[in-house]
Structure formats: structure tokens, C-alpha cells
Amino acid sequence: MEINDQPGGERKLACSDVTKCFQLLESILDGEMGETGQELMKEKLAKCQPCFEHFHLEQAIRDVLKTKCTKQPVPTELARSIRQMIQESK
Amino acid sequence: MSEVQRRKYSQEEKTAIFDGEFMPHIDSMYNFAFRLTFDEDDAKDLVQDTYMKAFRFINSFEQGTNAKAWLFRILKNSFINEYRKKSKQPTKVDYQEVETFYNSDDVDYQSTSDLRAESVKDMLGDEISNALNALAVDFRTVIILADLEGFTYEEMAKILDIPIGTVRSRLHRARNLLKEQLKGYAQSMGYNTNEEEED
Ligand SMILES: [Zn+2]
């Protein structure tokens, strides 16, 4: 990955522990880390360019999946036929 | 159902639980079923079967617990046991194969993708959906559960009967595979991938 001329320029260009950092960032993005996660994340993103980029890509992926995936309309008769089957099975 | 049978619900209670806690999830259930089977009729049958089972085993559902996760677990098991064989879309990776593939929870967290967040944000719903649908069923499933349905790792572990560590690593792999798919789209659409952009 090409990393250069980033705004501010104070972030490290190499992550000292990609495995640990990325795993942590992904858990935070998945809402698994609570408050502590938010603090840790802010710190990482301010200091480390690979973490910063990884975070934004992972966040974009989650956002588009959540908001853009086409929903399949539920067949209108499905709920009714389920109730009917239940009724008949009683 | 692994849950302990606590007590028997009355007929009225059963109806109240079924209508109040199970039926509201029909949209999510149908969408999950459709994304597993890629077929409207199979998805309908799968959802119907799931609700029939849910009603039959309603005494093992503890009121106040997560009905949606409970239903998704039944649906996923029905899919594996009954529908997977006849599913029209052949899955690229066999379940056993996938399990062996994950034998360790060790996954590669190297930064491999040169896909940019900006390109992802520009993509259309159909491109995202197609990329998701192209994944093998076990990878597709964890993404659906986590990102489309918002389940936690713990809920996913219960739905899929796998340890939380496996949920995390499978999800990571799944998203990496999805990024590969999206990168293909990005390149074919001429979106910027690895070139530098002005900030
Ligand atoms: Zn880092």
C-alpha cells in the first residue's frame, strides 16, 4: 500500500503490531469493546497511518453493507400462510 | 433446541409469544433465507419450516430472551440439514472444507487490500449485494448476521454453534474476501484503487 503525504504528517507510516491493532479495530467497529475501545481507537487513529486507513475502509464496508444491500420484499401471503399452518397444526 | 424446557406455556401465552416476539422478525428471516438459498420458493419454505418448528418447540423458548437470535438459529440449522443439499446455487466451499480451513483461529491481519474507503462508499447497492452473494455460504452468513442484522459476536456464536474466537476470525476472513470482490468491481468501474488521491 502506498502511504505518503498525509495531512499533518505526524502518523507513523508502519504499524508496529498490525495483527493486534487490526483485530482490535475490527472488534471496536463491531461494537464489542464498549467505552474503553473508543479511547483506544482514537489514540491509534491519531498515531498510526495503516490503522487509520484500515479503520476507514472497514467502516465503509460495514456502512455500505448496512445501508445499501438490496432488501428482498417479503411475499405478502407468507405471514398469513404461516398463521394458517400453525392453526391447522393445533 | 439445547435450551432447558422451563415450563409449559398456555395456549394464550403461546399465541402472544408467537405474534408478539416471533412474527415481527419475518422480514429479517425471509431476507436471511433468501440470501442463503437465492430462491424465492426455497426461502419461503425455509421461513415457514422455521416458524413451524418455533411453534412446536415454543416451550424451550424463554420469554424475554432474544427471540430473533433463537429464530435465526433454527433457520440456520434447517438450512444446513434440509435445504443445503437441494439449494440451487452450488456453494463454492463445502462446509467441512471451510471448517478445516479455519482449524486455527489464527488469521492474517496484514494490510493486503489496496481498496480505498472512498471507492467503497461510491458503490451501488447491487454491486455490494452481488459481492456479498458471491461469497461461500459460511462467509456470507457471518456478514449477514453481523452487518445486515446487527447481531453481536456472542449472539452469532450461539446462532452458529461456534466459539466467539471463531466468529471473529471468520468474520475477518469474510470481510477480506468481500474486499477482494469489491476491488474487482472498483477496478472494472475505473474507481480509484491504489493510486494516490488528493485529500
Ligand atoms: Zn497501527
Give a structural overview.
The complex is a heterodimer of chains A (90) and B (199). Chain A has 90 residues and is mostly helical. Chain A has four helices and no strands. Mean pLDDT of chain A is 86; it is low at 1-6. Chain B has helices at 11-22, 26-37, 40-56, 67-83, 95-101, 117-122, 125-133, 137-148, 153-160, 164-188. By secondary structure, chain B is mainly alpha-helical. Helix content of chain B is 63%, strand content 0%. Chain B folds into two domains: 2-86, Rna Polymerase Sigma Factor, Chain: A (Orthogonal Bundle); 95-188, Winged helix-like DNA-binding domain superfamily/Winged helix DNA-binding domain (Arc Repressor Mutant, subunit A). Chain B has ten helices and no strands. The chains are: A mainly alpha (90), B mainly alpha (199). At the A-B interface, α1, α3 and α4 of A face α2, α3, α6, α7 and α8 of B. Zinc ion is lined by residues 15, 21, 44, 48, 50-51 of chain A.
User: At the third CATH level, what is the topology name of the largest domain in chain B?
Assistant: Arc Repressor Mutant, subunit A
Characterize the biggest β-sheet of chain A: none
Basic shape of chain B? elongated
Fraction of residues in H or I helices of chain A = 55-70%
How big is the Rg of chain B?
A: 19 Å
Q: Which CATH class of the largest domain in chain B applies here?
A: Mainly Alpha
Shape of chain A: elongated
